């Protein structure tokens, strides 16, 4: 097995850990809103994608790294410590930054699915069109996230 491919996928599995934590925090802070509702669906889809990464790792006789997952979890938690004009409360700037983190993650995941699609014959557990479907899903989520990002930025940066 190609060790670079294994490392690449283990790193993406850890990235899903951080992404799911970030989605959970943002969803909790935006319950009852359109963004909060969207994040419920987004979280479920990213959990499925995370499971597919694990399945692909299994095809390569590899598994995710507990250490990398713990580090990714910790990095996401430590990202909450930065000052967003409000130390103890969720701020409008927090929302902007969290959505930007999700956008960056979705772009990275979409690129991963594109790469895996180009070498899909190496993976027995994946349907022929599964990676292409995941790429499309990432494109759709990225589009929705961009809409929420613009709305969040307009609210955070509006003149009072």
Task: Report on this structure.
This protein has a single domain, classed as Ferritin, core subunit, four-helix bundle (Ferritin, Up-down Bundle), CATH 1.20.1260. It has 5 helices and no strands. It has helices spanning 3-29, 34-59, 66-78, 92-118, 130-156. The chain is globular. The termini are far apart.
Write the layout of secondary structure elements.
Layout: H1 3-29, H2 34-59, H3 66-78, H4 92-118, H5 130-156
Helix pairs in contact: 1-2, 1-3, 1-4, 4-5
Essential attributes:
Ferritin, 160 residues, 75% helix, mainly alpha
User: What is the gyration radius calculated from CA atoms?
Assistant: 17 Å
What summary fits the major beta sheet? Answer: none
How many separate helices?
5
Based on the coordinates given, report the CATH architecture: Up-down Bundle
Poorly predicted ranges (pLDDT <50, ≥5 residues)?
none
Mean pLDDT: 89
Measured distance between first and last alpha carbons: 58 Å
Number of domains: 1
CATH superfamily: Ferritin, core subunit, four-helix bundle
Helix content: over 70%
Q: Examine the coordinates and then state which fold CATH places here, giving the name of the CATH topology.
A: Ferritin
> What structural class do helix, strand and pairing data support?
mainly alpha
The tally of beta strands, per DSSP, is 0
Spell the H/E element sequence.
HHHHH
CATH class categorisation = Mainly Alpha
Strand portion, in percent?
Answer: under 5%
